[in-house]
Design goal:
about 350 residues; alpha/beta; 2 domains; two-stranded antiparallel ribbon; about 45% helix
Amino acid sequence: MTTLLREHAEQQFAEELAVLTEVDARSRPPSWKLSPWAVMTYLMGGKLDNGFTVSPKYIGNRRLIEIAIATLATDRALLLLGVPGTAKSWVSEHLAAAISGDSTMLVQGTAGTSEEAIRYGWNYARLLAEGPSPAALVPSPIMRAMEGGGIARLEELTRVPADVQDTLITVLSEKTLPIPELNSEMQARKGFNLIATANDRDRGVNDLSSALKRRFNTVVLPLPASAEEEVEIVRRRVESLGRMLELPAEPPALEEIRRVVQIFRELREGVTADGKTKLKSPSSTLSTAEAISVVNNGLSLAAHFGDGRMQSHDVASGLTGAVVKDPVQDRVVWLEYLETVVKERKGWKDLYRACREVV
């Protein structure tokens, strides 16, 4: 068993990618490891003609993934847009793994991201000793993707300062990265493309310029359409994380996952599942990713401080922490929800008592 805390997608699902490569007889765009059909099968899952089952990496609207894959087969870059927790980074990583066999050509966007992180930097010891030279140049992940005809990833594009964002315009429109210090340029090889992710919910967001927006084809990833879909996403990810972290606990009962998902969906939508009671929504996003975190934390508590079976008191603190981001405003919303909904719901008394103890 691997000792890595988190394997890259191409490592974790190496067997599936290898089997798909074997059976994939369809045409492939230049430099692609798999055909668009095989990339889709890898993302959405399915049973192959040889009987091998590919696990789904994304549970949701199939057409959105088809559009994303088709975009990457053209000269247009792909922008995955959505609220936090809609699997943008997850989809981005798996697309890069399936297409290039390498999901590590990644730039993590932050308020401190500089032009060098997107273009290139310098080995200053060699620069001082020899002056500007190809040997002194340190390529960025995007530059490496251009050189090898691969897929680069840029996470949280809207967190990057606006003037740094526009560094991408020449790369995406001309498929060229100028290197004026060497009186040269890097021209992208066939197969190069960029997947960027962004959301417009968080504070500190920098809007994209119109010029940059035109270089992207935007695919909006929504929150799960139904409760059952969201429950299945949480269940799969929690089981996967449990195996990876080697938690000595039973897989969480489906009913416990359903309760967490129902609470998140009701508070997110501002109404109970039956539509009878209107609710106040907290300031937190309450995304599917946070639901996964709550259940996974409860599983860890059950494994190390319980009997190995996740129960209501194991998820209570995680639920409260996910909902109450603002200690004043959100606490009022959470207490009102506990008293008017959770307390009155049949079979939920245990969860009500556990949450009241930690709120």
